[in-house]
Amino acid sequence: MAREIVATADIIKLNQTETAPKLPGDSVSYPSVKDSYFDRLFKYIPAEIVAGYIFVLGLMGQLTEPDETRVLQWTVFAVFCLLTPFYLWRVQKVKKLQQHIISVLSFVVWVAALGGPFSQLEWYKQIYGEILLPVFTLTAAIWEAE
After folding, report:
1. What is the pTM of this model?
2. Measured CA distances, 65 to 2, 61, 69, 83, 144 (Å)
3. 51-79 mean pLDDT
4. Which of 20, 41, 60, 110 shows its CA 20 to 30 Å from the CA of 103?
């Protein structure tokens, strides 16, 4: 399954531009239906990025200096935020800007649920992120990235 969201507009565009008949043995395959809600649900979550972040977050647990921990947590968070669209574009071949934006927001929500650098903010309570995670994840998948 390709990582880029297949929306209704993609199917329409494909049907309009596909004028040449397919040759026998043509290995190019085009999606014939748009992604379902559950397909979008999984495609919007940058699971590889979240897994990498969780691994690095675990390593940072070895730090004992509070100032060092604070700086490193925010730095790692920023690096993974920037890495998310780059990874989706270069590795997963996702070209849709809206999908990149939703995936970065998804990563931020996952980090908020895990605590990460947000746990250092005075107003932050982990329950906020824990509630936001399923709400955001389930509602974001309603959006069809164009």
Report:
1. 0.84
2. 43, 10, 6, 26, 44
3. 93
4. 60
